[in-house]
Amino acid sequence: MDAAQQTLKNTALFLATALLAVVPMRAQSPFTANPNPVQLTGTQTFVTVNIAGSGNFTIAQSGSFFNTGGVTNGTAPTSFTVGLASTVCSNGGTTACNGSITLHPTSVSGTSQDLVIPVTFTPGAGGFSFSWRT
Fold this sequence. Notes:
The chain has 134 residues and is an alpha+beta fold.
């Protein structure tokens, strides 16, 4: 009976060790974004942002001059589109607009931190111009 108990203990110890070894592999890995920062211009009004890493996240947006195409959460790896929504912040095309997108990991495991992606709009960089000919 002692041999059977020892085998049972060894099996339980092996399974516990194997479980502990697998759990870190399921942890969320840090997010990266490409491009980072996102730069919108008069001719580049949409940019696809590719997110690498692993795990679920939510998106928080700071700035009203751009949008994320209605995306408010996701699972990395993935991508989403950032688009120009308004140029009002540019004061008639005289100043740049600044904002950011924050990806916040929703998993409690792992060491992932928020990823902040700066977003800018630079007016006049290939923007629209009008000329009158007489």
